Amino acid sequence: MIRLFTRAGEKRIKAGHAGTLDPLATGMLPVLLGEATRFSAVGLNADKTYEVTMDLSCQTDTLDAEGETTARFDIRINQKDMESILPRFTGNLEQIPPAYSAIHVDGQRAHEIARKGGKVVLAARPVVIHELRLINFLFPMVTLRVCCSKGTYIRSLTRDIGTSLGMGGYVTALRRISTGGWPEAMMLPFDTVAKQHEACILPLQQWLRHLPTILLQKVEAQRFVQGQRLQMNSEIQGEVTVTFEDILLGTGIMKPGMHRMVLHPAQTLPSAQRRLLS
After folding, report:
1. Under 8 Å between Cβ of 42 and 18
2. 132 and 197 co-located in one domain
3. Secondary structure class of 232 (helix, strand, coil)
4. Are 260 and 253 in contact (CB under 8 A)?
5. How, if at all, do strands 26-27 and 170-179 pair?
6. What are the catalytic residues?
7. H or E stretch covering 12
8. pLDDT, tens digit, for every residue of 194-211?
9. Which of 159, 167, 203, 250 could pair covalently with 56 via S-S, beta carbons 3.0-4.6 A apart?
């Protein structure tokens, strides 16, 4: 990926992603380039939507199809039983992450400890399930659509749903269909990116589209990119993007001042500094 977007003779461009996927998962993985990597937290902290298929008849140590089977279950349920249990797993929940995860425990990844036969004890974490909907039921396979907060482990969710039914619940297929509200239609296969990479780039302003925008005049813009606070005639509060003409200067925080709102620089872009201060 980095090689695709690095021009010959120039310094290798920075690249980063906005949220890892489980090894068997497919779907949306936003990639940020250059200065955009400064705003990866937008994706990391965003709500995400998944479609997951789970098998109720077994459980595995990794809570997915890549693990070893640890239990089998002969109980049967129908679609109505499944639909009736889902409201219990909607809203604010306390969720224990899988032992096979990238969480650090005493300086090691939890999955490294688990693969060596060690015992992994992880504390429950608060998560939010905004939507949990049954897409398909063909026992013992169940497909759900899940819209959830950051930090949610879909493998833990399927485990907990299965446990509540007295059954297993391991992931057989997982696809992320949205990050931060980006539609599924925005996804591109890697082959397309490899062949038409320049055409695949979106402006950083679109990544920050959820923020209101403050438009500055040139003198104000020069002060902003130098890290100076600015008094503004505005009713906007909170995080904003800051622009001058068609130039994105960065992001700031609008806070009440003594008499007017004050724009505090948060992230200023080096490219804007070069254009305005050279």
Report:
1. yes
2. yes
3. strand
4. no
5. parallel
6. 22
7. none
8. 888 777 889 999 999 999
9. 167
